[in-house]
Amino acid sequence: MDHLSVMSIRVDHRTDSAPRMQEILTKNGDLILGRFGIHDPDEVNHGLITLNLRSDMARIQNMMDELNGLEGVKVNHMQA
């Protein structure tokens, strides 16, 4: 069963992590209903991405595991 949920991704050292993170997000693009990203204006190398998702929890968990496996990336998830 598909669930609506929200995922936040904090990226430290985004210049190092961004290309691989973008590959993961693109691969899972069919889960993503909306995406909003900002960087910390005081810390150029830090950013926050918020995703609105619709999918089953197994696919969401798989994407979270891949993202959490990247250095400098921390993921939080909240199911609606």
- For the secondary structure, the number of strands is 4
Question: Gyration radius, to the nearest Å?
Answer: 12 Å
| CATH uppermost class | Alpha Beta
The H-level CATH homologous superfamily, spelled out, is ACT-like. Chain A, domain 2
CATH A-level architecture: 2-Layer Sandwich
Any low-confidence stretches, pLDDT <50, length ≥5? none
Strand order, main sheet: write it out. 2-3-1-4
What is CATH's topology name? Alpha-Beta Plaits
Cα(first) to Cα(last) distance is 13 Å
List the helices and strands and how they pair.
Elements: E1 3-12, H1 14-27, E2 32-40, E3 43-55, H2 57-68, E4 73-79
Write structural notes for this entry.
This protein has 80 residues and is α+β, with helices and mostly antiparallel strands. The protein has a single domain, classed as Alpha-Beta Plaits. Helix content is 32%, strand content 49%. It is built from two helices and four strands; from the N terminus they run E-H-E-E-H-E. A four-stranded antiparallel β-sheet has the order 2-3-1-4, with helices on one face. The radius of gyration is 12 Å and the shape is globular. The protein starts with a strand and ends with a strand. This is Iron-only hydrogenase system regulator.
Main traits of this protein?
FeFe-hyd_TM1266; ACT-like_dom_sf; alpha+beta; Iron-only hydrogenase system regulator; four-stranded antiparallel β-sheet; Acetolactate_synth/TF_NikR_C; Alpha-Beta Plaits
